[in-house]
Protein backbone atom coordinates (compact mmCIF):
# COMPACT_ATOMS: atom_id res chain seq x y z
CA UNK A 1 0.00 0.00 0.00
CA UNK A 2 1.63 3.23 -1.13
CA UNK A 3 0.51 6.62 0.09
CA UNK A 4 1.97 10.09 -0.02
CA UNK A 5 4.29 10.75 2.89
CA UNK A 6 3.82 14.51 2.67
CA UNK A 7 0.46 16.25 2.79
CA UNK A 8 -0.71 19.44 1.17
CA UNK A 9 0.08 22.08 3.75
CA UNK A 10 -2.82 24.29 4.75
CA UNK A 11 -2.45 28.01 5.19
CA UNK A 12 -1.48 28.19 8.85
CA UNK A 13 -1.72 31.24 11.11
CA UNK A 14 0.68 31.56 14.04
CA UNK A 15 -0.35 33.93 16.81
CA UNK A 16 -0.33 33.84 20.62
CA UNK A 17 -4.00 34.83 20.46
CA UNK A 18 -4.92 31.55 18.77
CA UNK A 19 -2.30 29.23 20.22
CA UNK A 20 -2.49 25.50 19.64
CA UNK A 21 -3.63 23.24 22.47
CA UNK A 22 -0.73 20.94 21.66
CA UNK A 23 2.22 21.09 19.29
CA UNK A 24 3.75 17.71 18.49
CA UNK A 25 7.36 17.63 17.31
CA UNK A 26 8.04 14.64 15.07
CA UNK A 27 5.74 12.63 12.79
CA UNK A 28 6.76 9.07 13.50
CA UNK A 29 4.43 6.44 14.93
CA UNK A 30 4.40 8.18 18.34
CA UNK A 31 3.81 11.66 16.92
CA UNK A 32 1.09 10.66 14.51
CA UNK A 33 -0.66 8.56 17.19
CA UNK A 34 -0.56 11.59 19.49
CA UNK A 35 -2.01 13.85 16.79
CA UNK A 36 -4.84 11.41 16.04
CA UNK A 37 -5.73 10.97 19.71
CA UNK A 38 -5.59 14.71 20.38
CA UNK A 39 -7.93 15.30 17.44
CA UNK A 40 -10.37 12.70 18.74
CA UNK A 41 -10.49 14.56 22.07
CA UNK A 42 -11.23 17.89 20.42
CA UNK A 43 -7.80 19.40 20.96
CA UNK A 44 -6.35 21.75 18.35
CA UNK A 45 -3.08 20.08 17.42
CA UNK A 46 -0.21 20.94 15.10
CA UNK A 47 2.29 18.34 13.96
CA UNK A 48 5.75 19.65 13.05
CA UNK A 49 7.94 17.37 10.92
CA UNK A 50 11.31 18.14 9.37
CA UNK A 51 11.25 15.52 6.60
CA UNK A 52 8.49 12.99 5.80
CA UNK A 53 5.81 11.21 7.78
CA UNK A 54 6.87 7.97 9.49
CA UNK A 55 10.28 8.03 7.84
CA UNK A 56 11.98 5.63 10.27
CA UNK A 57 9.20 3.03 10.09
CA UNK A 58 9.91 2.52 6.41
CA UNK A 59 13.36 1.20 7.40
CA UNK A 60 12.02 -1.56 9.70
CA UNK A 61 12.00 -5.00 8.02
CA UNK A 62 9.25 -6.48 10.23
CA UNK A 63 7.04 -5.56 13.19
CA UNK A 64 6.98 -8.25 15.88
CA UNK A 65 5.83 -6.54 19.05
CA UNK A 66 2.14 -5.77 18.45
CA UNK A 67 -0.28 -8.60 19.31
CA UNK A 68 -3.03 -6.97 17.24
CA UNK A 69 -0.93 -7.19 14.04
CA UNK A 70 -0.03 -10.23 11.96
CA UNK A 71 2.89 -11.30 14.16
CA UNK A 72 6.22 -11.18 12.36
CA UNK A 73 4.63 -10.93 8.92
CA UNK A 74 3.97 -7.24 8.51
CA UNK A 75 6.66 -4.81 7.48
CA UNK A 76 7.38 -1.37 8.83
CA UNK A 77 6.54 -0.02 5.38
CA UNK A 78 3.00 -1.42 5.60
CA UNK A 79 2.46 -0.03 9.09
CA UNK A 80 3.86 3.37 8.09
CA UNK A 81 1.51 3.50 5.12
CA UNK A 82 -1.45 2.84 7.41
CA UNK A 83 -0.44 5.58 9.86
CA UNK A 84 0.04 8.08 7.05
CA UNK A 85 -3.27 7.19 5.41
CA UNK A 86 -5.12 7.73 8.70
CA UNK A 87 -3.43 11.07 9.27
CA UNK A 88 -4.05 12.41 5.78
CA UNK A 89 -7.69 11.28 5.83
CA UNK A 90 -8.38 13.64 8.74
CA UNK A 91 -6.62 16.55 7.01
CA UNK A 92 -4.90 17.59 10.23
CA UNK A 93 -2.61 20.60 10.50
CA UNK A 94 1.06 19.95 9.78
CA UNK A 95 4.11 22.15 9.33
CA UNK A 96 7.19 20.86 7.48
CA UNK A 97 10.03 22.69 9.23
CA UNK A 98 12.92 21.92 11.54
CA UNK A 99 12.45 22.68 15.24
CA UNK A 100 15.53 24.39 16.68
CA UNK A 101 14.45 25.23 20.25
CA UNK A 102 11.64 25.57 22.77
CA UNK A 103 11.58 28.88 24.67
CA UNK A 104 9.38 30.29 27.45
CA UNK A 105 9.01 26.73 28.70
CA UNK A 106 7.63 27.72 32.11
CA UNK A 107 5.10 30.20 30.76
CA UNK A 108 1.45 29.66 29.97
CA UNK A 109 2.34 29.61 26.27
CA UNK A 110 5.37 27.64 25.10
CA UNK A 111 7.32 29.10 22.17
CA UNK A 112 8.36 26.41 19.70
CA UNK A 113 11.01 27.88 17.42
CA UNK A 114 11.46 26.42 13.96
CA UNK A 115 14.02 27.42 11.36
CA UNK A 116 11.53 29.98 10.05
CA UNK A 117 9.02 31.06 12.73
CA UNK A 118 7.69 30.85 16.28
CA UNK A 119 4.73 28.58 17.03
CA UNK A 120 2.69 29.15 20.20
CA UNK A 121 1.35 26.20 22.20
CA UNK A 122 -0.29 25.53 25.54
CA UNK A 123 1.46 22.14 25.64
CA UNK A 124 4.23 20.48 23.67
CA UNK A 125 4.95 16.83 22.92
CA UNK A 126 8.48 15.91 21.85
CA UNK A 127 8.18 12.84 19.61
CA UNK A 128 11.18 13.27 17.32
CA UNK A 129 12.51 9.73 17.70
CA UNK A 130 16.03 8.43 17.31
CA UNK A 131 18.68 8.17 14.60
CA UNK A 132 21.63 5.95 13.83
CA UNK A 133 24.88 7.50 14.92
CA UNK A 134 27.31 8.19 12.11
CA UNK A 135 30.26 6.03 13.12
CA UNK A 136 33.80 6.52 11.92
CA UNK A 137 35.42 3.47 10.39
CA UNK A 138 38.59 3.91 8.41
CA UNK A 139 37.55 5.08 4.90
CA UNK A 140 33.82 4.97 5.76
CA UNK A 141 33.35 8.63 4.81
CA UNK A 142 34.98 7.99 1.45
CA UNK A 143 32.50 5.25 0.57
CA UNK A 144 29.31 6.73 2.04
CA UNK A 145 26.69 6.31 -0.69
CA UNK A 146 29.12 4.16 -2.67
CA UNK A 147 29.07 1.06 -0.53
CA UNK A 148 28.32 2.34 2.98
CA UNK A 149 24.68 2.55 4.05
CA UNK A 150 22.73 3.08 7.28
CA UNK A 151 19.48 1.57 5.95
CA UNK A 152 19.28 -2.02 4.73
CA UNK A 153 15.68 -1.92 3.39
CA UNK A 154 16.44 1.33 1.55
CA UNK A 155 19.54 0.20 -0.33
CA UNK A 156 19.58 -3.59 -0.65
CA UNK A 157 17.92 -3.31 -4.08
CA UNK A 158 21.28 -2.03 -5.41
CA UNK A 159 23.09 -5.16 -4.20
CA UNK A 160 20.76 -8.05 -5.02
CA UNK A 161 22.40 -11.51 -5.06
CA UNK A 162 25.73 -10.05 -3.93
CA UNK A 163 27.65 -10.77 -0.71
CA UNK A 164 26.99 -8.03 1.86
CA UNK A 165 28.19 -7.15 5.35
CA UNK A 166 26.35 -5.63 8.29
CA UNK A 167 27.93 -4.42 11.52
CA UNK A 168 26.63 -3.16 14.84
CA UNK A 169 24.95 -4.30 18.04
CA UNK A 170 21.56 -5.38 19.30
CA UNK A 171 18.39 -7.00 18.09
CA UNK A 172 17.87 -4.59 15.19
CA UNK A 173 21.19 -5.73 13.74
CA UNK A 174 20.03 -9.36 13.80
CA UNK A 175 16.63 -8.48 12.33
CA UNK A 176 18.28 -6.59 9.51
CA UNK A 177 20.66 -9.50 8.83
CA UNK A 178 17.74 -11.91 8.52
CA UNK A 179 15.98 -9.47 6.20
CA UNK A 180 19.08 -9.11 4.02
CA UNK A 181 19.43 -12.88 3.68
CA UNK A 182 16.30 -12.88 1.53
CA UNK A 183 18.01 -10.72 -1.09
CA UNK A 184 21.78 -11.10 -0.79
CA UNK A 185 24.01 -13.94 -1.91
CA UNK A 186 25.50 -14.09 1.58
CA UNK A 187 25.36 -11.91 4.72
CA UNK A 188 28.38 -11.42 6.97
CA UNK A 189 27.46 -10.07 10.42
CA UNK A 190 30.25 -8.37 12.38
CA UNK A 191 29.53 -7.50 16.02
CA UNK A 192 31.54 -6.71 19.14
CA UNK A 193 29.12 -8.80 21.17
CA UNK A 194 30.09 -12.30 22.28
CA UNK A 195 26.60 -13.61 21.54
CA UNK A 196 23.75 -13.13 19.09
CA UNK A 197 21.41 -10.57 20.64
CA UNK A 198 17.65 -10.86 20.25
CA UNK A 199 14.50 -12.71 21.18
CA UNK A 200 14.75 -16.50 21.28
CA UNK A 201 12.63 -16.97 18.15
CA UNK A 202 14.73 -14.43 16.24
CA UNK A 203 18.00 -16.06 17.29
CA UNK A 204 16.65 -19.47 16.29
CA UNK A 205 15.63 -18.24 12.84
CA UNK A 206 18.92 -16.50 12.15
CA UNK A 207 20.94 -19.50 13.32
CA UNK A 208 19.05 -21.72 10.86
CA UNK A 209 19.77 -19.44 7.91
CA UNK A 210 22.71 -20.89 5.91
CA UNK A 211 23.32 -17.59 4.11
CA UNK A 212 24.32 -15.78 7.34
CA UNK A 213 27.79 -15.96 8.91
CA UNK A 214 28.51 -14.30 12.25
CA UNK A 215 31.84 -12.79 13.28
CA UNK A 216 31.40 -12.39 17.03
CA UNK A 217 33.72 -10.27 19.20
CA UNK A 218 34.91 -8.60 16.02
CA UNK A 219 35.08 -5.13 14.50
CA UNK A 220 35.25 -3.63 11.04
CA UNK A 221 38.77 -2.24 10.80
CA UNK A 222 39.05 -0.77 7.30
CA UNK A 223 37.19 -0.36 4.01
CA UNK A 224 39.03 -0.59 0.70
CA UNK A 225 38.28 0.03 -2.96
CA UNK A 226 38.82 2.49 -5.78
CA UNK A 227 35.69 4.36 -6.79
CA UNK A 228 33.39 2.04 -4.81
CA UNK A 229 33.72 -0.31 -1.86
CA UNK A 230 35.37 -3.59 -2.85
CA UNK A 231 36.65 -5.27 0.32
CA UNK A 232 36.47 -5.01 4.11
CA UNK A 233 39.09 -5.90 6.69
CA UNK A 234 37.72 -7.17 10.02
CA UNK A 235 39.56 -7.67 13.30
CA UNK A 236 38.72 -10.36 15.89
CA UNK A 237 39.31 -9.06 19.40
CA UNK A 238 39.73 -12.48 21.02
CA UNK A 239 42.67 -13.90 19.09
CA UNK A 240 43.76 -10.65 17.37
CA UNK A 241 43.35 -12.21 13.94
CA UNK A 242 42.35 -10.35 10.78
CA UNK A 243 40.26 -11.33 7.78
CA UNK A 244 39.55 -9.64 4.45
CA UNK A 245 36.19 -10.24 2.79
CA UNK A 246 35.19 -9.20 -0.72
CA UNK A 247 31.89 -7.36 -0.37
CA UNK A 248 30.46 -4.33 -2.14
CA UNK A 249 28.32 -2.88 0.66
CA UNK A 250 28.50 -2.38 4.42
CA UNK A 251 25.29 -1.70 6.34
CA UNK A 252 25.96 0.04 9.66
CA UNK A 253 23.57 -0.59 12.56
CA UNK A 254 26.02 0.44 15.24
CA UNK A 255 24.34 2.70 17.76
CA UNK A 256 21.37 5.02 18.08
CA UNK A 257 20.81 8.31 19.84
CA UNK A 258 17.85 10.57 20.42
CA UNK A 259 17.06 13.61 18.29
CA UNK A 260 16.59 15.92 21.28
CA UNK A 261 19.68 18.07 20.81
CA UNK A 262 17.47 21.15 20.24
CA UNK A 263 16.40 21.01 23.91
CA UNK A 264 19.83 22.05 25.19
CA UNK A 265 18.63 25.61 25.75
CA UNK A 266 15.35 24.61 27.44
CA UNK A 267 15.75 24.83 31.24
CA UNK A 268 14.10 22.15 33.33
CA UNK A 269 14.02 19.52 30.57
CA UNK A 270 16.56 16.83 31.37
CA UNK A 271 18.35 15.32 28.37
CA UNK A 272 20.76 12.38 28.75
CA UNK A 273 24.16 11.97 27.11
CA UNK A 274 22.39 9.82 24.50
CA UNK A 275 20.11 12.80 23.71
CA UNK A 276 17.07 11.09 25.21
CA UNK A 277 14.50 12.99 27.30
CA UNK A 278 13.75 12.01 30.89
CA UNK A 279 10.07 11.90 31.86
CA UNK A 280 7.79 10.68 34.61
CA UNK A 281 5.07 8.05 34.26
CA UNK A 282 2.70 10.60 32.70
CA UNK A 283 5.29 11.29 29.95
CA UNK A 284 5.73 14.82 31.33
CA UNK A 285 9.26 16.18 31.53
CA UNK A 286 10.56 18.28 34.41
CA UNK A 287 8.54 21.17 32.94
CA UNK A 288 4.76 21.27 33.28
CA UNK A 289 3.06 21.03 29.90
CA UNK A 290 6.03 19.58 28.03
CA UNK A 291 6.07 15.84 27.31
CA UNK A 292 8.24 13.30 25.53
CA UNK A 293 7.05 10.05 23.97
CA UNK A 294 8.32 7.20 21.82
CA UNK A 295 11.94 6.57 20.93
CA UNK A 296 13.21 9.96 22.13
CA UNK A 297 11.96 9.25 25.66
CA UNK A 298 14.51 7.60 27.94
CA UNK A 299 13.30 4.03 28.35
CA UNK A 300 10.95 4.30 25.39
CA UNK A 301 13.03 2.11 23.09
CA UNK A 302 12.18 1.48 19.46
CA UNK A 303 8.93 -0.46 19.87
CA UNK A 304 5.79 0.44 17.99
CA UNK A 305 3.48 -0.63 20.79
CA UNK A 306 5.40 1.56 23.28
CA UNK A 307 5.16 4.58 20.97
CA UNK A 308 1.38 4.25 20.70
CA UNK A 309 0.98 3.64 24.46
CA UNK A 310 3.14 6.67 25.28
CA UNK A 311 0.96 8.83 23.04
CA UNK A 312 -2.21 7.70 24.81
CA UNK A 313 -0.77 8.39 28.27
CA UNK A 314 0.49 11.83 27.21
CA UNK A 315 -2.79 12.93 25.61
CA UNK A 316 -4.79 11.83 28.65
CA UNK A 317 -2.54 13.89 30.90
CA UNK A 318 -2.57 16.87 28.53
CA UNK A 319 -6.37 16.97 28.75
CA UNK A 320 -6.12 17.34 32.54
CA UNK A 321 -3.27 19.84 32.29
CA UNK A 322 -5.18 22.09 29.87
CA UNK A 323 -8.33 21.93 32.01
CA UNK A 324 -6.53 23.47 34.98
CA UNK A 325 -4.29 25.81 32.95
CA UNK A 326 -4.93 29.43 33.89
- The SS-based structural class is alpha/beta
**Low-confidence region ranges:** none
Oligomer: single chain
In angstroms, what separates the terminal alpha carbons?
A: 45 Å
Percent strand equals 15-25%
Mean pLDDT: 87
Question: What can be said about the biggest beta sheet?
Answer: 5 strands, parallel
The proportion of residues forming helix, as a percent range, comes to 10-25%
Instruction: Name the strands of the widest sheet in spatial order.
Output: 3-2-1-7-18
Shape call: elongated
Radius of gyration: 21 Å
Q: In sequence order, what are the helices and strands, one letter per element?
A: EHEHEEEEEEEHEHEHEEEEEEEH
Number of strands: 18
**What is the count of DSSP helices, taking H or I runs of 4+ residues?**
6
Structure characterization notes:
By secondary structure, this protein is an alpha/beta fold. It contains six helices and 18 strands. The strands form five sheets. It has a five-stranded parallel beta sheet, covered by helices on one side. Helix 2 (76-89) links the parallel strand 2 (45-48) and strand 3 (93-95). Helix 1 (29-40) crosses helix 6 (304-324) and helix 4 (171-180) runs parallel beside helix 5 (200-208). The longest helix has 21 residues, at 304-324. The radius of gyration is 21 Å and the shape is elongated. The model has no long low-confidence stretch (mean pLDDT 87).
Amino acid sequence: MDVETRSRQKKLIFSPDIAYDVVIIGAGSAGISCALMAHERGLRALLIEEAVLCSNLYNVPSIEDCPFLDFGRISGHEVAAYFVKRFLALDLEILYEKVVAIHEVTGRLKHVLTSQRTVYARSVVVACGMSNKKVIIRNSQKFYGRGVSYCAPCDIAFYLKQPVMITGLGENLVKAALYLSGYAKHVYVVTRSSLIQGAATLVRDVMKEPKITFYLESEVERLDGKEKLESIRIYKNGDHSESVLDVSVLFIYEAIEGNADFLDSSPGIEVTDELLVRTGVTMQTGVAGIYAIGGVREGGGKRLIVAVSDALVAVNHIQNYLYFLK
